[in-house]
């Protein structure tokens, strides 16, 4: 039984929707866990509770400022990674919808999503390589864009 390009496009569309949905759920959980559990270290010099109990003559305010700065940097990275993951998940679902409906724009978006999936080992790598194989195929280009790649000649 020979599998046609349209079948591969349909499979890739379904995979993009499923992985995008799972990714969004995972990222929302990730952001919820880190958002609820990640507490920024407070500046001890301005905290009245710590000021009242801090009788040490060797208070090092600079160390606390460094800890606060490090905590903010880590929280910033966590939020950035979460938002980037959400963006890839949303784009993956949109790409899957476009692939299932054979729209002309879905190939470009599908290639972007496939490249974004490559570092997510192992399921993302497999889907990313499969997506690149399918979306760079000449039959797929002809089917989705209506242009034959052999007709395009350099000037």
Task: Characterise this structure.
The chain is mainly α and 155 residues long. It has a domain of 56 residues. The chain is built from six helices and no strands. The two termini are 41 Å apart.
Q: Spell out the helices and strands N to C.
A: HHHHHH
Give a quick account of the main beta sheet: strands, pairing sense, barrel closure: none
The amount of helix comes to over 70%
On the 0-100 scale, what is the average pLDDT? 82
Low-confidence stretches: none
Specify the number of helices: 6
Radius of gyration: 24 Å
Gross morphology is elongated
- From the N-terminal CA to the C-terminal CA, the straight-line distance is 41 Å
Annotation, overall tally of beta strands: 0
List the helices and strands and how they pair.
Blueprint: H1 5-37, H2 48-53, H3 61-100, H4 106-117, H5 123-135, H6 138-145
């Amino acid at each position: 039984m020979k599998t046609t390009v349209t079948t591969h496009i349909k499979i890739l569309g379904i995979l993009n929707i499923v992985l995008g949905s799972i990714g969004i759920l995972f990222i929302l959980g990730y952001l919820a866990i880190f958002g609820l559990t990640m507490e920024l270290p407070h500046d001890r010099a301005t905290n009245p509770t710590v000021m009242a109990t801090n009788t040490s003559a060797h208070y090092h305010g600079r160390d606390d400022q460094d800890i606060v700065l490090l905590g903010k940097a880590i929280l910033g990275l966590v939020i950035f990674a979460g938002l980037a993951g959400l963006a890839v998940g949303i784009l993956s679902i949109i790409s899957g919808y476009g692939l299932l409906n054979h729209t002309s724009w879905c190939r470009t978006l599908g290639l972007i999503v496939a490249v974004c999936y490559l570092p997510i080992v192992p399921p993302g790598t497999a889907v990313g390589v499969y997506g690149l194989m399918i979306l760079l195929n000449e039959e797929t280009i002809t089917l989705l864009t209506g242009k034959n790649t052999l007709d395009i000649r350099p000037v």
